[in-house]
């Protein structure tokens, strides 16, 4: 893996979360090149991470074994089409764009490309990412191993057998960090309403989210049982949990993830016209 050269097209939140996590995990920064039109952003990225940079996407992919497409879905077509004349040995493409299908990307890239769609998330930056992956028919076992190793360097990897399931992955883990940040925000505000200083409420809320997540990831008990373990009969927690349940917390998550996944599928029509 470390001998591969990786080009990132786009150097924003998601690209920097992935290459930042890779470098922290020991991947050589000089095997990474990031491209975007903003020279100031590239200067900042080069300073912070030590990666090579260019404002020329075609130059970025020239030596690349793997090309990570990390631009907004809206502009993916205009980014891919000019690259097709530059493709010789066919690097492995990994697109992190929400909604855009492998066939659409392949068409924009001139056809016959090996393309993996990946739905990562921003905790990749701290080595705690979660990615869902799906590959087109040209993707070989070697490609799958490369993509798995790449994304495992920044978190966990789950392959899905049907492309449409990536919309569900988006709804759970791609967009998921925002749900947990929202919960931390809400818990911190509730703590302030109960009289705690903001900084104290924030530290307690963040550490509690971290502790619960760490326990859930290490325990043999499922999350529902871990929840019950905190709920002493006639104690305090059950009052809070009853209050959440009466407010329809599970239906709220069901509705929110449906809206998210529906939007991913809509984006495929909106931005994926060939
Ligand atoms: N943010 C997230 O949590 C997640 C995002 N994604 C996906 O990642 C992709 C990128 O999102 P995100 O990182 O948040 O967005 P950002 O806006 O942070 O990053 C997009 C990057 O693309 C660059 N860019 C714009 N035009 C071009 C171009 N013509 N050539 C090369 N680079 C260009 C931008 O540069 P400039 O600033 O100069 O415009 C910027 O660096 C999206 O497709 C999104 O669906 C997937 C999972 C999670
Ligand atoms: O909000 C978005 O569209 C992107 C995709 C998943 C997370 N962020």
From TrEMBL:
Domain Pyrroline-5-carboxylate reductase dimerisation: 163-267
This protein's record includes keyword Transport: no
Protein name as annotated: Pyrroline-5-carboxylate reductase
Keyword NADP appears in the UniProt entry: yes
This protein's GO CC annotations: cytoplasm
Gene name as annotated: proC
InterPro entries: 6-PGluconate_DH-like_C_sf (IPR008927), NAD(P)-bd_dom_sf (IPR036291), P5C_Rdtase_cat_N (IPR028939), P5CR_dimer (IPR029036), Pyrroline-COOH_reductase (IPR000304)
Assigned EC number: 1.5.1.2
Catalytic activity: L-proline + NAD(+) = (S)-1-pyrroline-5-carboxylate + NADH + 2 H(+); L-proline + NADP(+) = (S)-1-pyrroline-5-carboxylate + NADPH + 2 H(+)
Subcellular location: Cytoplasm
Gene Ontology biological process: L-proline biosynthetic process
Domain Pyrroline-5-carboxylate reductase catalytic N-terminal: residue ranges: 6-99
Source domain of life: Bacteria
Pathway(s) the chain acts in: Amino-acid biosynthesis; L-proline biosynthesis; L-proline from L-glutamate 5-semialdehyde: step 1/1
Functional summary from the UniProt entry: Catalyzes the reduction of 1-pyrroline-5-carboxylate (PCA) to L-proline.
Matches recorded under PANTHER family: PYRROLINE-5-CARBOXYLATE REDUCTASE, PYRROLINE-5-CARBOXYLATE REDUCTASE 3
Residues that span the membrane, as ranges: none
Alphabetized Pfam families for the sequence: F420_oxidored, P5CR_dimer
GO molecular function, one term: pyrroline-5-carboxylate reductase activity
Annotated binding of NADP(+), by residue: 9-14, 70-73
Entry similarity comment: Belongs to the pyrroline-5-carboxylate reductase family.
Keywords: Amino-acid biosynthesis, Cytoplasm, NADP, Oxidoreductase, Proline biosynthesis
Residues holding NADPH: 57
